[in-house]
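Weekly puzzle thread! Below is a chain. First person to post its structure in token form gets bragging rights.
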Amino acid sequence: MTKKKHHGSSFEAFLSDDGLLEDATLSATKKVIAAQIADAMKRKGLTKTAMAAEMETTRAQLDRLLDPNNDSVTLGTLKRAARALGKTLRLELA
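Winning reply:
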């Protein structure tokens, strides 16, 4: 007899049914972006002060960008961060 590996609906279906999927997805996306920026800074040996200078912004704004729980980041800030790291910013609607 084969046992079912999972019971009930998926976690994604649960979040969708409760109206939480969009917020959870946005939160996860911000956490990934913050981690990607922090990792790229580390690889390039950039301190927060140096990164803020490259972005032509304040250290406080960079801290908000790197805060995985702060989702009030502008596209302009993301673009400047990408440019400072020698990356390009790609966005898409799905």
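Puzzle host: Confirmed. Bonus trivia for everyone else. The two ends are 40 Å apart (CA to CA).
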